[in-house]
Every structure is written in C-alpha cells, then in structure tokens.
Specification:
The structure holds 2 protein chains of 2 kinds.
Chain A: H1 2-13, H2 16-21, H3 25-54, H4 56-66, H5 69-100, H6 111-138, H7 141-147, H8 151-156, H9 161-182, H10 184-193, H11 198-225, H12 229-257, E1 261-262, E2 270-271, H13 277-292, H14 295-309, E3 314-319, E4 327-332, H15 334-360
Antiparallel strand pairs in A: 1-2, 3-4
Chain B: E1 3-14, E2 17-28, E3 32-36, H1 43-50, E4 58-63, E5 66-67, H2 72-78, E6 79-82, H3 94-104, H4 125-135, H5 151-162, E7 169-172, H6 181-196, E8 200-205, H7 208-212, E9 217-222, E10 225-230, H8 232-243, E11 246-252, H9 256-265, E12 269-278, H10 285-291, E13 306-314, H11 318-330, E14 335-340, H12 345-357
Parallel strand pairs in B: 3-8, 3-9, 6-7, 7-8
Antiparallel strand pairs in B: 1-2, 1-4, 4-5, 9-10, 11-13, 11-14, 12-13
Classes of the chains: A mainly alpha, B alpha/beta.
C-alpha cells in the first residue's frame, strides 16, 4: 500500500513525458531519495490513519455500540453519578468551612480549597469509573465473536488479526474517551474555583487514558484466551480488582506487620531506623515501584510529591543511617513510571492477543 | 477443465478420534461437488481445513494452486466459506452486514479513492452491496435488521456475504439444512445461477437426494473415509455393480399369477414381487384396452379395471433383460409396459455407507 501511494504521488507530480524526455536518470534518483524519507513518513502516517479509519471492525463496533438505548443510558448514568458526587462534595466543603469557622474573615469557603477538593474527588471517581468500565467494553468482544461463531467468518476473510484486535480496542477506547470528554463540564466546575494548574489536568488525563488502555487491553487479552464471554468478564474483573484494589491492601497489611511505618506525606516515604542506607534505598525504590503499579496510588503520590518537591518529573530524596553521611537518591515522578510501565504492558498484551488468535486459526 | 481443488491424503485427528482419514479428491473448475455423508462423517472438518480454519494433521490440500498449509491468505482470497450456522450480527442492518464483510475483504469504499482518508463511507462499496442484495433477492430488506429476517433469508444473506470478494470457489457447509421447502428451492436456484457465473461450488449435505439434482459430482464420505466419488451416473452404476442386480417393472393387464410363476421359474431372476393397482374408474375400459395394442384380444378375459405391477429383480445385462420380456410375450401375457427402474440414489447411499460401517 505504501508503495502504491508513493508511485501515485510521483505520477501526479511529474507527467510521464517529463520523466522520459528531460530529467536525467541520476537526478531523478537523487530527488527521490531526498524526498523519500519525509514522504515515506507522511505516507506511512496517512496509511495508519486511513487503516484505522477504514478498519471495518471499528466502524461495526461503534455502530453497534452507539445504536439503541444502551450507549445513551450508560452515558447518562455516568454523568448523573459524577455530577451528584460533585454537588455532594461541594456542599460538604461549604458546610465544613462554615462549621469550623475557617472562613470567619473571608465569609465562607476559600475558593482554591473548594476547587481542589472538587477536582481531586471527582477525578478519583472518574478514575474508578474508567478502571471498572473499560474492561466491560472489551472483556466480551473476542469471546463474544467466538460464541456467536462469527470469529470463523472473520478469520476466513482477508482481515488481518492485527486489525481485528486493534479495531476492538480502538472502538472500546473511543467510547471511554467519550465518557471522559463528557465529564469535562463537571471538571471545569472545579476550574471555576481555581486552585488547579494546567499540568495537573494534563497529567490527570494522561493517567486516565493509560488506565483505560491497560484495563481495555487486559479485557482483550483475556477474551482472546477464554471461550465464553462470562468467564472472560469474570477473569478480567478479578485481575483488575486484584491489581487496583487487592495488591495495595495486601501490601499495606504486610508493611504494617513488618514494622515499617508507611507515611506517604513524608519525603522518603519510609521511616526506617535500623537499616543500612542501601537497604533503605532498595525499599524506597521497591515501594515506589509498587505505588506506580496502581492508578489511584500513582495519582495521589504524584500530587503529593508535586506539593512536597515542587517537581512533576524528577526529584531527589535523601537517605541516611547512623554510620554515614546522607546519600542522595534520584527519583522520577510516579506518573511517568506508571504511564511507561502500562504502555509497555498493554503493548505486550495486545501483541500476545494477536499472536494467540493467529495461532489458534491453525 | 482444470482442477481447482485438490486434496491429497488429508488426515485430521481430534485427539484419538480420526475425523478425516487419508482423503484424496480432485474437483474440476466450474463443477458443483456434493459432499455427502451422515452427521459426524468428517464433512465439516474437511471443509474447515479447506477454509483454512483447521490445520490438517497430515496431508495437503490446494485451492487454485495455493496450499492451505503454506498460503492460507492465498486460499482465502479464492474461497467464500459459509459454515453450517448463520453467524450473523444481530445489531446490524442487512446492507451494513454485507458492507462490513466487503470491507473485511479489502474491497475499497471507492476504487478511485482507495485508502485515502476521510471519504464518505458509502461512496462505492454501496454498489457492490446492492448488486449482492439483488442477486439473493433481498433488496427489499436492505434497511432491516438482520435478526428480523427469516431463516431462508438469513441463509441467502450469508451466501451473499461469501460472494463479496468474487471468489472462484464457494465452500458451503449444509446450505439447505433447516430450511423449509420453498427456501430450499430458492437456494438451489441460486446455486445454479452461481454455477452459471463460473463458480466452483463445494457443498455438503447429509441427504443425498437433496443435492443429487444440482450436483455434477458427488463424493460420499463415512467415518472419515471417502467411499465413492464421481458423477451421479457413475455412482449409480457403481451401486448397480455393487448390488449385481437390476430391476424391471412390468405392468400386466391380467393373468398375474401365471406371469409370477413364469418369471420365478426363469433363469437369472432372483425375486418377483406383485402389487395390484386399480386403474382409474373414470377411464372407460375400452379406451384403456384400445390404447394398448397387444392387450386387445386378452382384454376381454381379464378384469378390465385392474392392472398388475410386477417388480422383477434379476442378475445380468441388457440381454438378460430382453430375454425376460421375450418370455412374457411368448407366453401371450398381456404386457402393458416394461421398463427398467434406475437404482434409487438413496439405496446406493444406504448400501455404500452401510458397507463401511458394518
């Protein structure tokens, strides 16, 4: 396809007469190689866009999903829940400010506090919704085709397995993005009060998107293994519950029992008295990594570290034991690790799904 | 005529069960091949291998020169596969269903603007969809949802789907099963039409008579083994040979007892069965007799409103058959008609398949 596009373009740029009569052979080659890199890149990009645009699976899925009452109902419920929650938070903030008398001078609420509370709480709710909604749109897709026995039909067509898997994922994510975009007005309510910076919004959205991607990829992967949609959905939710909720709880219990005091607002994250500084460093990195495996912990930790260290990307922390001088440890902000880690994991899961499906066609 | 499907020593095992055993087959271009066998004989397995959905345990198959093992994509380009279930998306409209599969077969929306982004989606593929709908006579249901169609219509829609990329070979698994007689006839007409469009059709059925009429070639499979293969005439001849007997039907205007004993005593004859048939009362006896020249003088002796039918099984060739007729005539018996009965296809099927199972 790429070659076709290119030859088509050169054909229109120069008429065949030109090519034959005037241009010496070597000059033509030079010009071609000079342009070819940019042109190839552009043509590849256009090809990619057009492949996604023309992916019949995307069209079919979106058509099927948006048709009927279900899509509208989900969107409505989503918005009702979000706005009820936001109102609840708002009134709670106002109420508590008045009762504690914090606003004795300013009469009422500090707008920045209200804005931040609104934003963070509605963001957390949205993150929860994304974590639990995205797999719902992917967990049954491929196993559903298998149940309806349409997978065989798709395999006998010329549709590449890649398009099948990516199409399913793209269409599911498209709907999630729609949900996120639809929630924008609720978030902009928080922006009216102030106290929110743009970088927070951008990083927050990025975490949301990556979360949707990884949750969707887990769904796709499981549904490409399982025979029935119900089994696939159950297994997907079990996996996601375990990583999003179970793992942090287990970790917290373990850490409390083993005598560490976990204090996320402290700079080091750990207060360990009797350990060698190397062990302290290892613990910080391990704990930091585990925080980065969880979307909620990542979001919270990113925010807290931003407040503490005033950096959204890179910062240092110090560890010391009794014997030595303090050592400085370089650290990167959790959201970067989270985004990179889960982009890689979903790429892996998607590739695996493609390979499994390709292998299964026998 | 070139060979378009070739199967060589194809074997497929599911664990210990051998579904297809050393199957070899050649199908000519433009023919309609009927793959007949009882349920579980290995028809579907063979077809799924041809459709590149299963990898054979051993052996090889080619469709239009492409190997199903090495070049599945090449095979897929040439075949349209219809499984023995509908496989429809219920939330789709009829035209969308066809459009979707056409897109899966890489048919550009518009030949001129192929693979350029952002052109209106229904620009050119719509023409193909309309053609297909017209072919299977579903134009009037274009904008209806697929699940509102009847079984026959769904089957026709599925057939239209297999034609989206204009394949040379159609692999149809039980295309007529579960359909009412009318829908069956419609499917049969469609298959004839497709044959006229130079398609090779490989279809399966567990009922021989259902497909005997349209098939140019038939293969009978049982328990994974190809039992017989050839044109209908060849299979009938093989059945005859297998049975070693031929059958004639003799109609007499009377003296049936005499004829029975005469035939039973003649050489070559194995079995004679007599059935009495009443001739239509509304027909005057004279006319019946006058229309049969030989029966004129015996007509008076026999009860004129009756005819007797004898089914005679005998061993031998055409000469033996004429000898039987000669004997009857020489004895002065009132023979109204004398004709050979072709061996019933279903009988052949029963014989052939039973032979292997026992």
């Amino acid at each position: 396809m790429t070659e076709n596009g290119e030859t088509g373009k050169t054909g229109t740029a120069r008429t065949p007469d030109d090519q034959q009569a005037h241009a010496p052979a070597h000059e033509g080659i030079d010009r071609r190689t000079e342009q070819s890199f940019v042109r190839r890149a552009v043509s590849r990009l256009a090809h990619l866009v057009s492949r996604t645009w023309y992916n019949p699976i995307v069209l079919k899925e979106i058509r099927g999903r948006m048709r009927g009452w279900r899509a509208t109902a989900v969107l409505t419920v989503h918005l009702v829940v979000l706005s009820c929650f936001a109102s609840l938070i708002y009134f709670t903030v106002v109420e508590s400010a008045q009762s504690t008398g914090r606003g004795a001078v300013g009469a009422g609420v500090q707008p920045a506090v209200a804005g931040q509370t609104l934003f963070y709480s509605s963001y957390m709710l949205l993150l929860t919704l994304v974590v639990f909604l995205s797999p719902a749109f992917t967990a049954g897709t491929i196993s559903g085709e298998r149940e309806r026995k349409t997978l065989d039909l798709l395999i006998t067509t010329l549709l590449p397995t890649r398009s099948l898997v990516l199409g399913k994922l793209t269409s599911a994510l498209a709907y999630i993005v729609l949900l996120i975009l639809a929630a924008l007005p609720v978030h902009s309510l928080a922006l009216m009060f102030g106290g929110i910076i743009l970088s927070e919004v951008i990083i927050g959205t990025l975490i949301l998107l990556v979360t949707a991607l990884i949750a969707g990829s887990i769904g796709i992967f499981v549904s490409s293994i399982m025979k029935s949609s119900i089994a696939s959905t159950v297994l997907t939710y079990a996996t996601i519950l375990l990583t999003a909720m179970g793992l942090p709880i287990v970790l917290f219990i373990l850490l409390s029992f083993s005598g560490f005091v976990v204090n996320p607002s402290a700079t080091s994250g750990l207060l360990v008295n009797n350990l060698n500084w190397v062990w302290q460093a290892v613990l910080i990195y391990v704990l930091g990594f585990l925080i980065c495996t969880n979307p909620f912990a990542t979001a919270v930790a990113t925010k807290l570290l931003e407040q503490e260290k005033n950096s959204l990307f890179y910062f240092t922390t110090q560890v010391s034991d009794r014997s030595s001088v303090p050592h400085t440890l370089p650290l990167i902000s959790p959201w970067i690790v989270y985004v990179t880690l889960y982009l890689a994991v979903s790429a892996l899961l998607i590739t695996l799904s493609i390979l499994i499906l390709r292998h299964k066609r026998g | 005529m070139a060979t378009i499907i070739e199967i060589q020593n194809l074997t497929h095992r599911y664990g210990r069960l051998t579904a297809v055993n050393e199957l070899s087959l050649k199908i000519e271009e433009g023919s309609i091949f009927g793959f007949i066998g009882p349920n579980g004989a290995g028809k579907t397995t063979t077809m799924r291998i041809l459709a590149t959905l299963l990898r054979p345990t051993s052996g090889e198959a080619w469709v239009g020169g492409c190997s199903v093992r090495k070049d599945p994509r090449g095979v897929r380009k040439q075949i349209g596969y219809m499984p023995d279930f509908f496989g429809v998306y219920n939330e789709m409209k009829v035209w969308e269903y066809l459009d979707f599969f056409a897109a899966c077969y890489d048919i550009p929306v518009d030949a001129r603007r192929a693979h350029r982004p952002f052109v209106p989606l229904r620009a050119g593929r719509a023409a193909l969809v309309d053609d297909l709908l017209e072919l299977v006579d579903l134009t009037h249901r274009r904008d209806d949802y697929v699940d509102s169609l009847s079984r026959g219509m769904k089957q026709r829609l599925c057939l239209a789907r297999t034609l989206a990329h204009d394949p040379k070979v159609l692999i149809l698994d039980e295309p007529a099963s579960g359909l009412d007689p009318r829908a069956r006839i419609e499917i049969r007409e469609l298959l004839r039409e497709l044959q006229a469009m130079d398609k090779t059709i490989f279809l399966s059925s567990h009922i021989l008579l259902e497909v005997a009429e349209i098939c140019t070639m038939i293969g009978i499979i049982e328990a994974g083994n190809l039992v017989t293969c050839g044109s209908i005439e060849e299979i009938q001849a093989a059945g005859r040979r297998r049975r070693h007997t031929r059958r004639v039907q003799v109609t007499l205007a009377g003296r049936s007892e005499e004829a029975m004993s005469l035939l039973q005593s003649s050489p070559n004859v194995i079995d004679v069965t007599l059935t009495e048939r009443r001739v239509d009362k509304g027909l005057p006896p004279e006319r019946l007799v006058r229309s049969q020249p030989q029966g004129e003088q015996v007509g008076k002796q026999a009860p004129q409103d009756r005819a007797f039918e004898l089914i005679v099984d005998f061993i031998g060739d055409d000469l033996a058959q004429t000898a039987i007729l000669t004997r009857l005539i020489q004895a002065g018996l009132p023979v109204l008609s004398f004709r050979e009965i072709e061996v019933e296809l279903e009988d052949v099927f029963m014989q052939v398949t039973k032979g292997i199972a026992s």
